[in-house]
Every structure is written in structure tokens, then in C-alpha cells.
């Protein structure tokens, strides 16, 4: 299978051609936002990270920023800092520039305030957007795609319809030589033994058990029942009774292929095939981690419904039941409720999702892109100081 | 018997899922892995929610997808609603660790 993509200097292929204004600190997000209102073809995101962070928490946030900028859906990046923050814009900019794409770095303190910075960033953005517009799509092999998978706002149908259908799609992606990311470690608690059995080797199996243990220990150290946070009230309303039940349904998104590796949050996969990224169950944090890891497209199943989208990656949202697909139609792209209705098989829906991946790779816009749903959130693993 | 839609995933399971609204006293027939059984529903079960397909004793594991999804907090008769009021998760239970 092939699709029309944008080839980047590092050899990777994008399905979109954005100019990203990347604020490395919460203080710069409003300024970045103003520029996107002035210059079409630019995207940004609001967040609250980038200062007073240390150690592995600092590293994880830096990796996420850099990975986001390096994602092949991005043509070029303007890294925007305030100036005094711990996540220095020039360091992130230098990291992104290693992949060869256009990168400019600006700080608000160096440019004499908000208005002059807006003018400066906008001028650079105009030039970058015009350069980006001259890049032609070329025919690319499906094996160059990394497809993230996630489920959010799950109900009892998630594990019966949309998740198993995404599992079939995941198998097809792997068969085509591509990469499918399974994430949300929290929502694999109780299903880890099934995934460990599919591990490529002992080391991968050990890492699978290790990330589960670390996640579970966080709730144990806090002295709380994990069910007070996950499954969520909406999951419970939908019929899910425990995290284990949710996990067994969530894990079906992984299909049946071999588990090639378990990678850290926002890390780029080093192998093709099925890869497990260690993320929390929080929808936006896991989405951000997978996109920072290089996913060009994300499949997102939901039973309760969700508007979720990414500033740089198309998110194909798949409903687990027909009533929600009808009720929240402006947010949902595909309906897997037909499986519960007895109208389609899991395999048929899996094939339909695969066709949609191809259309979206070629440029078809998803609902979250049309509605400018630009969610971003980093999984913080340490306190703010 | 076809008026109610249900899903019984494995003959090892102690619960099944309602795929239509089940009223009290509904008689449903469940089939999984060549194994068939009839159950009378004891209380209304909403779409997507679970009911016991056999009597489950307090403390016993509750099985769905052929795997453990938690433990019974009370004795649960066949046909009863199984949810957060009588099923508790066994994983991530920091609240159960003695301080």
C-alpha cells in the first residue's frame, strides 16, 4: 500500500505540512496564539509546562517538545521562549534542528515584549508558510507510517466493537510493514500477562511487567484505590466496573501481532511493528506522547464521545456505539457501533478504518482538524519547584 | 428469546453483558464456546452493564473475557446486576495496604 506524503530532510514522511509555533514555556503560549491568528498555515498549543522542572521530569518534557517539533507532519518550527525559563528555547530548537528542517528560535525578553515579538515571529512565519506551500506530496510506502492507538471515554462496548476493530487495523498496519503504537499503561493493568506472552523476547516481556508495576505502585504509594480515578465516572456509568475490566477491553486495540518493544513516553520507536509506549491513561497526555514519538496519525476509540485532536496530527475518532455516533457526529469520524448492532463484523470495520487511514494520509481532514481541536498535555512525572 | 441482545464472551465467564435494556424477569439464553445456559434476570440491567450468569460467592474472582476483572464484595445470585456496588477491582489498591 502507498500514500501521498511529504518527505522531510531526515527521510521521515509527514501526512500534513504544518508550520509549528512551539512555546517552550507557558508564559509564551498567548503570544504564540496571537501569531496563529495572524498567519494562516501556522499552528500552536496552550500548555502549562516548561519551568521549575528538574531531573527525569525535566528530561521528559524536553523530549516531548523536541519530538513534537521533529514530527514529520511539521515542515518547520519557530521555537518561542520567554527567556528565563528552565526549558531554554534555544536548547529545544537545537535539538529539533538536528533533523534538518527549518527552525528559528525567538525569546520574548530579547525582543522587547509581546508586540514586537508577535511582529517578529509573524514575519518569520509568513516566509516559512510560503516555503512550506511549495513542498509537493510524493508517493510513499505505507511502512513509513507510525499510527498511534488510544481509547478514551470508554464504555462497555469499547472492548467489544471499536477496540477489537482497531486491533484488526493494527494487524493490517504491521502486515504492511508499518508501526502501531499501543499506549496507556494504566489501562493495561490486569492485561499485562496477555501482552507479555506476545513479547519478541524476555527483555521486552520484563519491561512490560516493569512499566505496569511502576504505574500500579504510584497508586499504592499514594494509599488510594486506583478506581477513584480510573475507570472514570463516565466509564462506570457506561457499565465498566473495574480497571481490570477496562484494561482487558483496551488491550484488544493491540491486535494479535508480536510485541516488538516497550518504549518510554515521547520516545521514537526503534522498531517497526507493534510497539508499546509507556503513557498514562489520560487522553491528551498519551496523545501528545505518541505524536512526540513520531506518530503521523492517531486512531482514537470512544464510547462516551470526545472532541480530542492534536495541533499537528490527524486523529481519527471511532465510536463504539451507534447512538453516540449520531449524537456527537461533528466529533466522530467512523462508527464501529455497527458491530454491536449486528450489521458489520470486527474485520469489516477494521478494513474500513484502514481505508480511512489511507484517505487521511492523502489529505482528507478529520473532524478534530476541521474543528481546530489543538489539544496538548505532557505527562509530568515530578513536582514543580 | 431473541428479543433481548446479550453477549456472553467465554464459558469460563461468570458475567455477561446486556446489549439491550433488560427488564426484571426477562428470560435470556446465553451461548459461548458451544455451552448454552438460560438465566432469569432479577433486576433491570441497562445497555452495556453486566449480570451474573451463575451464583458468585463473596470473595470469589469475577471472570469476563475468560480473565479476572475483580472480586465479589457480597454473594451475588445468578441474574443480578454486577457493577461497582458488588464488584471491586484487585489492582492498584493502595487503599488496602496497611500503613
TrEMBL record, chain A:
It comes from the Bacteria. One of its GO terms (molecular function) is hydrolase activity. The keyword Lyase applies. Keywords: Hydrolase, Lyase. Residues 143-383 form the D-galactarate/Altronate dehydratase C-terminal domain. Residues 5-132 form the D-galactarate/Altronate dehydratase second domain. InterPro entries: GD_AH_C, GD_AH_second, UxaA_altronate/galactarate_dh. It holds the Pfam family GD_AH_second. Belongs to the UxaA family. This is Carbohydrate hydrolase.
From TrEMBL, chain B:
The keyword Lyase applies. Pfam families: SAF (PF08666). It comes from the Bacteria. Keywords: Lyase. GO terms for biological process: D-galacturonate catabolic process. SMART domains: SAF. Residues 13-88 form the SAF domain. GO terms for molecular function: lyase activity. InterPro entries: SAF, SAF_UxaA/GarD, UxaA_altronate/galactarate_dh. PANTHER family: ALTRONATE DEHYDRATASE, ALTRONATE/GALACTARATE DEHYDRATASE. This is Altronate dehydratase small subunit. It comes from Domibacillus enclensis.
Amino acid at each position: 500500500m502507498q500514500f501521498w506524503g511529504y518527505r522531510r530532510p531526515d527521510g521521515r514522511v509527514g501526512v500534513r505540512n504544518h508550520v509549528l509555533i512551539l512555546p517552550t514555556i507557558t508564559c509564551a503560549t498567548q503570544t504564540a496564539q496571537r501569531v496563529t491568528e495572524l498567519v494562516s498555515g501556522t499552528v500552536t498549543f496552550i500548555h502549562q509546562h516548561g519551568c521549575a522542572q528538574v531531573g527525569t521530569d525535566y528530561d521528559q518534557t524536553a523530549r516531548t517538545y523536541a519530538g513534537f517539533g521533529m514530527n514529520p507532519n511539521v515542515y518547520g518550527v519557530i521555537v518561542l521562549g520567554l527567556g528565563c525559563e528552565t526549558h531554554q528555547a534555544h536548547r529545544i530548537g537545537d535539538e529539533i534542528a538536528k533533523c534538518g528542517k527549518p527552525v528559528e528560535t525567538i525569546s520574548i525578553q530579547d525582543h522587547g515584549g509581546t508586540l514586537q515579538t508577535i511582529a517578529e515571529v509573524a514575519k518569520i512565519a509568513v516566509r516559512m508558510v510560503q516555503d512550506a506551500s511549495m513542498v509537493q506530496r510524493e508517493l510513499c510506502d505505507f511502512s513509513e507510517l507510525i499510527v498511534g492507538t488510544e481509547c478514551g471515554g470508554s464504555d462497555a462496548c469499547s472492548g467489544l466493537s471499536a477496540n477489537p476493530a482497531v486491533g484488526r487495523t493494527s494487524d493490517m498496519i504491521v502486515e504492511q510493514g508499518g508501526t502501531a503504537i499501543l499506549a496507556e499503561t494504566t489501562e493495561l493493568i490486569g492485561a499485562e500477562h496477555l501482552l507479555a506472552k506476545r513479547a519478541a523476547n524476555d527483555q521486552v516481556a520484563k519491561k512490560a511487567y516493569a512499566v505496569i508495576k511502576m504505574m500500579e505502585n504510584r497508586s499504592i504509594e499514594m494509599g488510594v484505590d486506583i478506581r477513584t480515578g480510573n475507570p472514570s465516572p463516565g466509564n462506570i456509568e457506561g457499565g465498566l466496573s473495574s480497571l481490570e475490566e477496562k484494561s482487558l477491553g483496551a488491550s484488544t486495540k493491540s491486535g494479535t501481532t508480536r510485541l516488538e518493544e516497550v518504549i518510554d513516553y515521547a520516545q521514537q520507536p526503534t522498531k517497526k511493528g507493534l510497539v508499546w509506549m509507556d503513557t498514562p491513561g489520560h487522553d491528551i497526555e498519551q496523545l501528545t506522547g505518541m505524536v512526540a514519538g513520531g506518530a503521523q496519525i492517531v486512531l482514537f476509540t470512544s464510547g462516551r464521545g470526545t472532541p480530542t485532536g492534536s495541533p499537528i496530527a490527524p486523529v481519527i475518532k471511532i465510536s463504539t456505539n451507534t447512538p453516540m455516533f449520531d449524537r456527537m457526529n461533528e466529533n466522530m469520524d467512523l462508527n464501529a457501533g455497527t458491530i454491536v448492532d449486528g450489521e458489520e463484523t470486527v474485520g469489516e470495520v477494521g478494513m474500513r478504518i484502514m481505508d480511512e487511514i489511507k484517505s487521511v494520509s492523502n489529505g482528507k481532514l478529520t473532524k478534530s482538524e476541521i474543528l481546530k481541536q489543538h489539544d496538548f498535555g505532557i505527562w509530568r512525572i515530578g513536582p514543580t519547584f | 428469546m431473541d428479543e433481548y441482545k446479550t453477549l456472553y464472551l467465554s464459558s469460563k465467564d461468570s458475567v455477561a453483558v446486556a446489549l439491550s435494556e433488560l427488564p426484571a424477569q426477562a428470560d435470556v439464553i446465553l451461548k459461548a464456546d458451544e455451552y448454552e445456559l438460560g438465566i432469569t434476570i432479577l433486576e433491570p440491567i441497562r445497555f452495556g452493564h453486566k449480570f451474573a450468569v451463575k451464583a458468585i460467592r463473596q470473595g470469589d474472582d469475577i471472570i469476563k473475557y475468560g480473565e479476572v476483572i475483580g472480586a465479589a464484595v457480597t454473594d451475588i445470585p445468578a441474574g443480578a446486576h454486577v457493577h461497582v456496588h458488588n464488584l471491586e477491582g484487585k489492582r492498584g489498591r493502595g487503599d488496602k495496604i496497611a500503613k
